[in-house]
Design brief:
The chain has one domain. It has a five-stranded antiparallel beta sheet with strand order 1-2-8-4-5, with no helix packed on it. It is built from no helices and eight strands. By secondary structure, it is mainly β.
């Protein structure tokens, strides 16, 4: 289950930012799928992708394609674990 972290804005007005940590994107890894979807829209540039616990390099290993999808350069195998962290838009 993803972890949601919230923090109060510097002005103390109660404006919160939400960070999603260790979410499993869909669909499941299968060795063929390269486009994955996250549960909520993310702020561009905040998506962090981890494959088997190793952080992937933007533009080298994956690219952000929309505010809710990203594309892996190489399809993860079915036995590989894909997780993402991001700041919700």
């Amino acid at each position: 289950m993803p972890i949601k972290i919230t923090s109060q804005g510097a002005s103390g007005e109660g404006i919160a930012e939400s960070t999603v940590i260790q979410e499993t994107p869909t669909p499941a890894t299968d060795g063929a799928q390269v486009i994955f979807t996250v549960a909520s829209a993310y702020v561009a540039g905040t998506l962090k992708v981890f494959l088997d616990g190793l952080r992937q390099i933007p533009t080298t290993d994956f690219s952000e394609t929309t505010t809710t999808t990203f594309t892996m350069v190489v399809a993860p195998d079915s036995d590989e674990v894909l997780r993402v962290d991001y700041l919700k838009a």
